[in-house]
Structures are given as structure tokens and as C-alpha cells.
Design brief:
Elements (H helix, E strand, L loop, with lengths): L2 E2 L2 H13 L4 H20 L10 E6 L3 H15 L3 E6 L8 H12 L4 E3 L15 E5 L11 H12 L3 E5 L21 E5 L4 H4 L3 H5 L1 E5 L6 H6 L3 E4 L1 H4 L12 H4 L1 E5 L6 H14 L3 E6 L4 H4 L7 E4 L6 H8 L4 E4 L7 H13 L4 E3 L2 H7 L2 H4 L6 E3 L3 H8 L3 H6 L1 H12 L2 E4 L5 E4 L2 E6 L11 H12 L5 H23 L7 H15 L5
Parallel strand pairs: 2-3, 2-5, 3-4, 5-6, 6-7, 7-8, 9-18, 10-11, 10-13, 11-12, 13-14, 14-15, 15-16
Antiparallel strand pairs: 1-9, 16-17, 17-18
Length: 513
């Protein structure tokens, strides 16, 4: 897991570091040295490292420009040939950036003003590397003038594009593009991840993100706090456990899936398949009686029953008896039955409840029921469903996903998994998690139904927060493996996703003794 810091937290991070005896120039030097090392050792390793490479570094007037100028020196010491292109006149350089500019030129480095002669593109080839060091995390208004023109030059380069800290023009807190931002292949971000690198449009613009250590003690993060953490494949190991050799189906738990209706039987089947493939000892599907003939017998391992047309109190009690987790909503419809079942589950069921799809829409129409969501529930909305819960728009949710997540957690007082290209997980009193697995191969109807079943099964062995973040990460790993194996960003059937779960889960289980 990597910490994620907001803009204000980053400002405090720098201030506390300086206040504790680490000068700002040392922080900038450490950032530049670390960035050169990551580029040399990790990104360019297969191409012989930095030695002999031609770098074009586009520099702005502030601290991000200072990072770029210091980076030029460290790249030079590693055998590269750096060219520094200033987006402003040297007299407009500020603070530490001016000192780094003086240091660069005092060692024989030259600077060129963008727009002058020779022009930026005159000597540029596709083998060259372009470095974006124009503006950093402090930006809160759209790029304009020569800075925007310089960012466009980065974007137009056909070769390798690298951003220092984050692509210029990206809002560090939200990932929103402020007027314009280049698309880069790699972002070398300093000290910690930023929300804008793991959510919103930032995911599209930042490429692969590498965190550069600044040699500041970790205790500083404990002092200032974080807005969240990343959670990826490497974080799953240690959170999953092997079954006991003498286990049996009852010990492994029974998942109840309340899902499906005419025309939407696939959603119910996919949720149940996700639960069984993740390790539920038993799974029962209770569905609309009209859908029962279409579901019964399709999956021999699944117990299928139709719900009574009119449910009495003892029907509700019989339904939840012996069930260790409930998944409600996939393809279930938003009729009165869904609302009534939610009422009963919230009032009477003490186990984890995964509230998904139509159940979320139903909940959004019942403010009185929202007030009764139990703390052991897990809501799994996409942006549209989240918008209905928050009485806003999907666009507003995606414009600041960390804020939307916090608003949902505050509203429901339970675990919330906000689905998207970078899924977020939050829970009262727990650190928000940005799931950094997954590819666009997941953008197909039914993949969310499988995820609901995965989380339902994981709830049998862990708490809702862990079940949500582990489930989302595993779900994403399946897509990552598919994309790596096929080279394709599409064509992954949700049923195939579910059937891959045992193999992927096996990668993260402790080795058998």
C-alpha cells in the first residue's frame, strides 16, 4: 500500500519536513535524484538505462520546474544528454527553482527559451525522452499561455513521455484536467500518491505511476495523516488464508443471493457463480418466481428457490436462517419486494449484507431506510447509483470521487465500494482505499454482479471493509491477467472472470505446508 496525500496534506508535509530540519532544497534534490534513479533503473532498464539517452526537459517557473532542473543534473551524471527548455524567462523563475537554474548553468548546462531558436522540435526525434516539469500539485486554475503550449508539446511527442510529480494541468486532488494536460507514459510522483493520479481523468493521463522516496521519516505521514492508500495485487497476500484440511461446507459458510427477474436472470447467476468460485461452502439463490424456471438447474451447485408472491414474517425468518452473508440486488428489479426485503434484512439480519444494483436504486428512493442501514452492510454503487444516493449527478461524483466516497460513508455509516476505473473503498473509521488493479476489460455488463458475489463470499471469513477491498482487487487482477495474456482490452465474459477466480486466488494463498 502507498499513502495518498491531498494538496493541503502535501503542503503540510513539506512545511513539517522543513520545520524539522530538512531544507526545501534538500527535498527538491532528493526528489530529482530519486526520479533519475527510477527512470534509469526501472523504466529504461531494458534499453540500457539513462546512459546515452537524449532528454528534453520542459521547465516551468515554480517548484516543479526546480525539480526538472535538478533532475537534469542527475540525469547528466548518469550519462544522459539533457536539454532544458524554459517556458518562462529566467528572470521569472522563483525561489528554489531559480537556485536550481543557477546550479544547472554553473556546471555548464544550457537553457533554451521555448519559442526561441533552435526551437523545441528542431532536434527532437522519436528516440528522445520528453520530461514534463512545468507545473505541479499547486495548480488550481487552467493552464494558459506558454505553459499550456509547452504542455501540448509534451503531449504531441511520439516517443517516451515522463511527468515529474504529476502531468501538468491535472488537479492533484480530483484528477480533473484544468484546461489541458498531456498524456504521459510514466509519472514519477514525489513522497506519496495524489488523489488525482488514482481517480478521474488522472488515470488516463498519468500512465504508470512510480512513487519516489524523499528520504523523509515515515513518522511524518503519521503526524499529518493521509486521504487514502492504494491497494493492489501485492497487498492481497497475507489477507487470505488456506482452508483447514478438515473443513466442511457448513464451516465455509452459506451465502444467500436475492437476485434475478424476467430478462435479468444472468445477473443472478453471475452473482451466485462469483460467490461459489470465491469459496462459499453453499450458495442459495432466491428469485422472482417467474424467473425460477429459467434459473433452476442451470448451475447444479446452486440451490434455487422462488420467493413467495406475498411474504409473511415467518417467510422472512426462514429465508435468512442459517445464512452467513447476503447479496441483494443484481437484476432483482425495484418493485416493492426489494424494498420489503431490505427493511427486514436491515432490521433483523446480523450478518454482512452486500447491497448492489437494483437494491441500491431502491434504497435511494427510501430516505427513511437509508437511516437504518446497518454498519455491517456493504454498498457497491457505480457513479450513477452513487449519484442517486447523493441527489447529484454521475458527472459530479466522478469529478471528485474521494469526496463522493466520503459523503456516501457519512450518509450510510457503512462500508461503501464506489465502482469505476479505479474503484474506491471506504468505511467509518478506516482509511479509504484506491484499488489499483483492473483494466477496461471489466467494462461489460455482469462484471459488477460477479464482484457482488465475490464480496459476499469473502464476508464469510473477514470483515466488510477487508472483503470489499480484497474482492475489488482480485476482480481487477483477473482482468489484468486477461489483458496481459490476450493483449486485448475487451472480450472478457463475466462468467469467464468468475471461473478464473480459483486460479487467481490461489496465487495469493499462503503456500501449503
Amino acid at each position: 500500500m502507498q499513502p495518498i496525500l491531498s494538496r493541503l496534506q502535501l503542503q503540510r508535509y513539506d512545511a513539517e519536513a522543513v520545520g524539522n530540519g530538512i531544507p526545501s532544497l534538500v527535498l527538491m534534490e532528493n526528489a530529482a535524484r530519486g526520479a533519475a534513479e527510477v527512470l534509469d533503473r526501472d523504466i529504461l532498464a531494458s534499453r540500457g538505462g539513462l546512459r546515452g539517452k537524449c532528454l528534453h526537459i520542459l521547465v516551468g517557473p515554480g517548484n516543479n520546474g526546480g525539480d526538472g532542473l535538478a533532475f537534469a543534473r542527475h540525469a547528466l551524471s548518469r550519462g544522459a544528454t539533457p536539454f532544458v527548455h524554459l517556458a518562462v524567462d529566467t528572470k521569472d523563475m522563483r525561489g528554489d527553482a531559480q537556485l536550481m537554474c543557477d546550479a544547472w548553468t554553473s556546471f555548464g548546462g544550457s537553457v533554451r527559451l521555448l519559442g526561441g531558436k533552435p526551437s523545441f522540435g528542431d532536434e527532437l526525434t522519436s528516440d528522445d525522452i520528453v520530461i514534463d516539469a512545468l507545473v505541479g500539485t499547486g495548480l488550481q486554475r487552467p493552464l494558459v499561455g506558454r505553459i499550456r503550449e509547452a504542455a501540448a508539446l509534451v503531449d504531441s511527442h511520439p516517443g517516451l513521455r515522463i511527468a515529474l510529480d504529476l502531468p501538468s494541468g491535472l488537479d492533484a486532488d480530483t484528477g480533473r484536467v484544468l484546461g489541458f494536460a498531456p498524456h504521459v507514459d510514466h509519472t514519477l510522483t514525489f513522497a506519496a500518491l495524489k488523489p488525482g493520479l488514482v481517480t478521474g481523468e488522472g488515470v488516463l493521463h498519468a500512465g504508470k505511476v512510480h512513487v519516489v522516496d524523499l528520504a523523509v521519516p515515515a513518522s511524518l505521514l503519521e503526524l499529518i495523516g493521509v486521504v487514502g492508500e492504494s491497494f493492489g495485487a501485492s497487498d492481497i497476500a497475507g489477507l487470505l488464508h488456506r482452508r483447514r484440511a478438515d473443513t466442511h461446507k457448513v464451516r465455509e459458510g452459506h451465502v444467500l443471493v436475492l437476485a434475478g427477474s424476467l430478462g435479468k436472470t444472468g445477473a443472478a447467476m453471475l452473482a451466485a457463480l462469483g460467490a461459489l468460485r470465491t469459496g462459499a461452502g453453499m450458495c442459495s439463490l432466491h428469485t422472482d418466481p417467474l424467473a425460477l424456471p429459467l434459473l433452476d438447474g442451470r448451475l447444479p451447485e446452486l440451490m434455487v428457490e422462488g420467493l413467495p408472491a406475498t411474504m409473511r414474517a415467518d417467510d422472512y425468518e426462514a429465508l435468512i436462517k442459517g445464512k452467513h452473508a447476503v447479496v441483494i440486488g443484481p437484476g432483482f428489479g425495484i418493485a416493492g419486494r426489494t424494498s420489503e426485503l431490505l427493511e427486514h434484512l436491515f432490521a433483523r439480519y446480523a450478518g454482512p449484507i452486500v447491497v448492489d444494483a437494483d437494491a441500491i436504486t431502491t434504497l435511494s428512493q427510501r430516505p427513511d431506510l437509508v437511516a437504518n442501514v446497518p454498519p455491517h452492510a456493504i454498498l457497491t454503487p457505480h457513479a450513477g447509483e452513487a449519484a442517486r444516493m447523493l441527489d447529484t449527478t454521475a458527472e459530479a461524483v466522478d469529478a471528485d470521487r474521494f469526496a463522493a466516497l466520503q459523503n456516501l460513508v457519512t450518509l450510510t455509516r457503512c462500508t461503501v465500494l464506489l465502482k469505476g476505473s479505479r474503484t474506491l473503498v471506504g468505511s467509518p473509521g478506516r482509511t479509504p482505499q484506491a484499488i489499483v488493479t483492473g483494466s477496461s476489460a471489466l467494462a461489460v455488463g455482469g462484471s459488477g454482479d460477479v464482484l457482488a458475489g465475490i464480496i459476499g463470499a469473502l464476508c464469510l471469513k473477514t470483515d466488510p471493509y477487508d472483503a470489499a477491498r480484497i474482492g475489488a482487487a482480485i476482480h481487477g487482477v483477473v482482468a489484468d491477467r486477461f489483458t496481459a495474456a490476450t493483449g486485448s482490452d475487451r472480450g472478457l465474459f463475466p462468467s469467464e472472470l468468475a471461473n478464473e477466480l480459483p486460479r487467481i486466488i490461489g496465487e495469493f494463498l499462503p503456500k501449503a505446508r
